[in-house]
Design brief:
single chain, 114 residues, alpha+beta, Alpha-Beta Plaits, rod-shaped, binds copper (II) ion
Length: 114
């Protein structure tokens, strides 16, 4: 009897632990403007800050799908890193002066995305 209670409590502790772990990983979508493959690398590199497990930018959708640890970072921080790299996001425009630093072929504000 005691043994089964102990087994059960260990089991419940583990279940609780696993659920807590799961909640710390979030998958979010963030609108990010860009033009080409160079933009893709720039955006994904910029988004890969500490705590980010995966960052995947979709040119057609103009969206970044990001998987990250909510314990280590937030979507706001990830967005800030992308804005600092010269790209507008759904959370705000590129940081002042950074848009002018990206390659001419990447100036998404001046062209249509094909
Ligand atoms: Cu580009």
């Amino acid at each position: 009897m005691i043994k089964s209670i102990i087994t059960l409590s260990i089991f419940l502790t583990m279940v609780g632990f696993c659920q807590a772990q799961e909640k710390k990983i979030a998958t979010d979508t963030l609108a990010v403007a860009g033009v080409c493959g160079m933009c893709e690398s720039r955006i994904e590199n910029a988004a890969s800050i500490a705590g980010v497990k995966k960052a995947e930018w979709d040119k057609q959708k103009q969206e970044l799908i990001v998987i990250y640890s909510t314990k280590k970072t937030s979507l706001d921080e990830i967005s800030k890193a992308i804005q600092d790299a010269g790209h507008d996001t759904g959370k705000g425009p590129a940081t002042a002066g950074t848009y002018e630093q990206i390659d001419k072929c990447c100036r998404y504000r001046e062209m249509e995305v094909h």
